[in-house]
Amino acid sequence: PFSSSSRRKMNLKSERRGIHVDQSELLCKKGCGYYGNPAWQGFCSKCWREEYHKARQKQIQEDWELAERLQREEEEAYASSQSTQGAQSLTFSKFEEKKTNEKTRKVTTVKKFFTASSRAGAKKAEIQEAKAPSPSIHRQASIETDRVSKEFIEFIRTYQKPGQDIYKQCKLFLDTMSHKRDLSIEEQSECAQDFYQNVADRLQTRWKVPPEKVEKAMDEVEKYIMTRQYKYVFCPETTDDEKKDLAVQKRIRALHWVTPQMLCVPVSEEIPEVSDMVVKAITDIIEMDSKRVPRDKLACITKCSKHIFNAIKITKNEPASADDFLPTLIYIVLKGNPPRLQSNIQYITRFCNPSRLMTGEDGYYFTNLCCAVAFIEKLDAQSLNLSQEDFDRFMTGQTSPKKQESDSFSPDVCLGVKQMCKSLDLLSQLNERQERIVSEAKKLEKDLIDWTDGITKEVEDIVEKYPLEIKAKSQALAAIDSENVENDKLPPPLQPQVYAG
């Protein structure tokens, strides 16, 4: 393994230091024939990595076995305490203390798998875990994070060298963001957007990756990054996202009386297929809050929108238009009242891949959802074609609008009577609208009269200030072609001449 030149260099360095070193002592302890390093306990770099890996795996296995044993002991202790609660000499306070201590030791042991090998870092992690044990939801999040990490590693292996570069960039970004927790959420959003742009440019310019593979890679990068960053950047305490969520939720609850007819929603829930589509759309928009990746949240919005389009198509027997879609989306949001709606919208806006928001159907449906939320926040009597008095009564809960369905009728009532009642209700609504139109027309007439009087007065004031003066006509100038042309000294007129061809 040693060349003659390397042997000479080694002997020369030893002679300069005045140290006589036996060449056999410098060999690796494992007998591979390479130089050993005292800092690595006499092993070469390759053999040291193998030994360290074996020791690490053994330590991990022992820790897992210890954690499982502690878990079993905890469950057995808890079961025995429940079965012999009155017969045990151990008091309740001592049992709780023992249970807390065992749980703390178990969590601290498992936490060692994911902490640094340094002694100071391990002690810090133990202190933090002892103060705040992880609940079950955090364990589920950790399981999901591990699953996403494995899927990401398996994915980047298909990209070979570009994949290794992507993984290094992602790890560097996560390490950088871990030291930037004190930054505002807007600054963290800018860092994430810059990271997306840099990775995409790096794949296209340096590695010459095709655009379709770049888009797929960016989706996986977003999934890996945001799954690990979710608990730090979703609805952070430094923002007022939670306050906005409560305001929107309270607003939607106050608007529970809004009917599809008020919003001009072209959907009939009496049709079973349409009713199923409405339920699926509400389920999808509610499920958005359970996702951790912005792309997955957008997928829930897209699925909800497609169910809405299908419901409109079945009801009208024709393709739906954008004018039909937005009112129906508003109705779905009012009926579903999705949890943490504003936080999800802000999270998508801040940390989603910008190319997905600016193009494609996901961006279109997300824009419509933002418009629907803005409409609900500013909803008033004029938006629903109601008088202000009726709107105030509905909002305060004093009265509720009449239902258009004939649920209150008995089964013996014929369909003609039900249809007649519906027609009467519709006529009453049309009568109210007609009265509003007449009142608005009278107001417009009054405005026109006032405008005419104002213009007339302005004209009179201008005429009075600047009176019109009519001056006498001045003597007309002689025409050039008049008969008196002697004194004008004009040349004689041209005479036509004929030339022979």
Characterize the structure shown.
- The chain is an all-alpha fold and 501 residues long.
- It contains 18 helices and no strands.
- The protein has helices at residues 4-16, 45-83, 92-111, 119-131, 136-157, 161-178, 185-206, 211-233, 241-254, 260-263, 272-287, 294-316, 322-336, 341-351, 354-358, 360-377, 388-396, 415-465.
Tell me the layout of helices and strands.
Blueprint: H1 4-16, H2 45-83, H3 92-111, H4 119-131, H5 136-157, H6 161-178, H7 185-206, H8 211-233, H9 241-254, H10 260-263, H11 272-287, H12 294-316, H13 322-336, H14 341-351, H15 354-358, H16 360-377, H17 388-396, H18 415-465
Helix pairs in contact: 2-3, 3-4, 5-6, 5-8, 6-7, 7-8, 9-14, 11-12, 11-13, 12-13, 12-14, 12-16, 13-16
Q: Note the quaternary state here.
A: single chain
What kind of sheet is the major sheet? none
State the CATH superfamily name of one domain.
VPS9 domain
CATH topology of one domain: Glutathione S-transferase Yfyf (Class Pi), Chain A, domain 2
The CATH class assignment of one domain is Mainly Alpha
Main location: cytoplasm
Subcellular location: Cytoplasm; Early endosome; Recycling endosome
Pfam families: DUF5601, VPS9, zf-A20
GO molecular function: DNA binding; guanyl-nucleotide exchange factor activity; small GTPase binding; zinc ion binding
